[in-house]
Amino acid sequence: MTKNIVNIKEAININDLLFLSSFIDYCKDNGIRNLDRDVLQRLHKEKLVFPALKVYKGVAEFRKIYTEISGEKDWRFIYPDDIKKVKVIKKDKKKYYSTAGISMSMIEEYKKVKRVEDPSEHNFKPWKTKTYAEFYTSYKKLQNQYEFIYDKKQILAIKIALPYLNWVNRLSLSEKNRMYKHIRERINSLYVFLNFYSELEQFNKKAAEIRANKISDLNKNYSDKKAKKSEWTDFYNIDFRGQLKKIAEKIMEENKTTVEYIIKWRSFLVEKSLISEACRSKKIKRNYLKGMAEKNLIDAEDVNWMIHIINTFLFFLTRKDEDVKQVLGDYSLKICVICGSNFIPNKENQITCGSPYCVRQHKNQLKREKRLREK
Length: 375
Ligand SMILES: [Zn+2]
Hints:
The chain is of the alpha+beta class. Among the domains are: 41 residues, no CATH class; 163 residues, no CATH class; 41 residues, no CATH class. The protein is 52% helix and 13% strand. The chain contains 14 helices and nine strands. β3 and β4 form a beta hairpin. The radius of gyration is 27 Å and the shape is flat. The relative contact order is 0.10. Zinc ion binds next to loops.
C-alpha cells in the first residue's frame, strides 16, 4: 500500500467527528496536555495535520416583529414563513440574518450544496477568530462563517507530529524542511493505514450482524436450550468462521497487504495507549493489567477499541486468538533520547525511536562528543 494520502479522507467516520473545541478536549483526555487552538492552527499551516473538514455554516433569513406570546409583549426574531402564524403588533422593515448550527448527521447533505471543503486541498488562510452567532442585518458579515471538524482518530497524527514541534525552531531551514518531510511521510502512512482500518471496522460490524441474525433465527426456531446451544456451536465453528475468513482474506487481497503490516500498526496503537505512555516495564504493566476485564479495557480508550477490532479481524483470518490485555502487556517500550516519544525497540540496544531524523541527530551528537573528547 503505497498511496500518498495527506488527509484522513476515506477513513472519516461520521461517529468519530468532533468540532475543534471538542477535539481539543478529546486530545487532552487522551494524554496530549499542551494542545490548543494555536497548536492545531500551526499544524495546519505547516501542512502536517489538516482539519478533516471545513464546513461553512448556513445563513438563515429572519424578520423582527413585535408580538405577544403568552401574554407577554416583546420583540422577537422569526422565520419569514412563520409571520402568518403569529399576531404581529409592529414589524421591523429590515431583514435580519443569523448562522445556523452544524449537525454532524447532515454532513453528506452539506457536501451536496458545496458547504464542505477538505482543507488539504486549499491554501492555508489564518483561522478566523471572530464568530457571529447573533442576528445581523448584514448578510455579507455572516456569509463565510465556518467550523473546522476533526476525526477523533487524528489524535494519532498529532501524537506523531507534536514531539518534534517543540524544538523545530532550533533547527536550520534545511533541517527543518527535512524534519517536516519526515513527519508528513509518517502521517501519510498513518492515513493509509486508517483507510485500511476503516474496512476492519466494517468487517467487525458485518460479523456482529451475522451473529445477531443467527441468534434471532435460533430464538425463533428452537425452544430447547440445549438444542439451541449445540446448533449455535456448529454454526459458529463452521459457517460463521468460514464465512468471515473468506471476507477477511478478500480484504487482505484487495489491499495487497500482509499480517505483518497489520501487526506493525497494531504495535503503533499500543505505543499510544495509556498503559504504554505511562512508561512502565513490561512486568509492572502486566501486574496492572491482571485485574482488568477485557471489556472495561476496550471501553476505556479508543486505541484499545482499535486494537480489539484488529484482534477480531486477525482471529478470523489467522485463528490466532489474542485479547487487548495480552497485546498491551506484550511490549516493553523505550523513550527516544532525541524526540522524547516512546517506541517499541527492534533491537536490544536501540536508543532512538528509529525515525531518520532522530537517528541522524543522535549520530551528530555522538560525533560532537567525540570531537570534544579529542580536543
Ligand atoms: Zn525520536
